[in-house]
Specification:
Helix content is about 20%, strand content about 30%. By secondary structure, it is α/β, with parallel strands linked by helices. A 7-stranded mixed beta sheet has the order 7-6-1-8-13-10-14, sandwiched between helices. Strand 4 and strand 5 form a beta hairpin. Helix 4 crosses helix 5. The protein is globular and about 45 Å long.
Length: about 230
């Protein structure tokens, strides 16, 4: 990915009290880097440096929550005071739904966004309408074929599943009804639910009557880090 990925704009989304969760508990096992993905080196420091800087340049005083797990103390030492840290102590035995639950239960705003911690993206990717719940999608091949895909009806999300051409860009925003449904899901969370993936939570919200707009922002550059050379 080009080094201008951050593409910082001196533009803030004001008057939007939002909590943003970075789900970064896992290791970089897919890229044979058995350390926190948040500490992978980019042109601007680490991946988490990039993400925090970008969020602070898009939003006005966002509540940024980073869910850590692998070598949590290393991340805490480096980023204390720049992001709120929540530790998923059972990260190796759970999936992203547990990290998502922990982040959600540690914030008090009524607008909530999350993204997966191995994403490198520019500001265009989140320069959208925050008046309703949404997911960011990719139809231009920035995500690999094996990633989670989407179907949509009238530009609203219908279902997420594997084997679909258009991809989910692993960013989602909850407000209004969808926020309330998410809250009710986590209030009834069972031990077995902690094995769910994040997209399964979104699918469940849809079956319970929720609705997500599908946005593919113009000029979006986004990459899920699979190889060290992706960020060199």
């Amino acid at each position: 990915m080009p080094r201008n990925t951050t593409n910082i704009k001196k533009k803030r989304i004001k008057n939007q009290r939002i909590s943003i969760a970075i789900l970064a508990a896992g290791t970089g096992s897919k890229i044979r880097s058995y350390e926190p993905r948040s500490l992978l080196k980019t042109a601007e420091g680490t991946l988490l440096d990039h993400q925090i800087k970008l969020l602070n340049n898009v939003f006005d005083r966002p509540d940024i929550i980073t869910v850590v797990g692998c070598h949590a103390n290393r991340v805490i030492r480096r980023f204390r005071g720049r992001t709120r840290i929540v530790e998923n102590q059972i990260f190796s035995d759970t999936n992203a739904s547990e990290s998502l639950r922990l982040a959600f239960n540690n914030m008090d705003n009524e607008h909530f966004m999350f993204f997966h911690g191995d994403l490198l993206f520019n500001t265009n990717a989140i320069d959208v309408d925050y008046g309703k719940s949404f997911v960011i999608i990719d139809s231009s091949g920035q995500f690999k074929d094996q990633e989670v895909g989407i179907t949509k009806i009238n530009n609203n999300l219908s279902i997420m599943s594997y084997g679909l051409k258009e991809k989910w860009a692993q960013i989602a925003y909850f407000t209004g009804k969808e926020y309330s449904i998410l809250k009710s899901i986590f209030q009834k969370f069972q031990e077995s639910d902690k094995k769910q993936l994040s997209f399964e939570i979104i699918n469940k919200i849809i079956t319970m009557g929720g609705s997500f707009a599908c946005y593919e922002p113009k000029g979006m550059k986004i990459l899920e880090i699979d190889r060290i050379k992706d960020i060199q």
